[in-house]
Amino acid sequence: MKTIELSDEDYDALMKFSKELQTQDNNGQRFPYYWCPSSEKLEYNVNDEGEETFIFDSSQCESYTPEQYAEVAESLWSDYLTEKGEIGECGYLRDYIEDDEYDWIEYINANSKNTRVYTKDWNREVDYNPSLFYSDVENYCKTNKHHLGRKPSPYSHSFWRMPKMEALVEIIYRVNKQPKELVNEEARRFVYKE
Description:
The protein is of the alpha+beta class and 194 residues long. Helix content is 38%, strand content 22%. The protein has seven helices and five strands.
């Protein structure tokens, strides 16, 4: 058997990494697996049947939620409330409420030439910044959530049918073979060859 020289620091790190690879949860992903940050991001719904509605105002080259647009287009909002008979004393404009959305959008479509209503859906997207370690990606999601979308979390993938990556991960497992009861199911299958 051949040996290689490692500094104490490198040896300790390799042992630590090997243990973590064998004992981390694989979230049901087949061996060998890796992790990427993922989050929900808004994507256009081509059928305009999306979860979230937006109004694009070409006169301002800006998009708004219906509630934001009620504030930005105050005179249009005033006209909408007047048509509904909801202008208060002294011309007071009441605040937008969620129940306004359908009628407000219909009013915008019928009465504004500078706008286009469109919708988007929240879809999970993966940021391709991979790691073999769940803890790396979990930490990335926590510290970089301002760069990610909604609900950032680690997402698992597999190196399946990538024989060199599979062999590398198996070697890292064998460097510091953990007790069978501590090893996750996928690692156990390859390290203990069950």
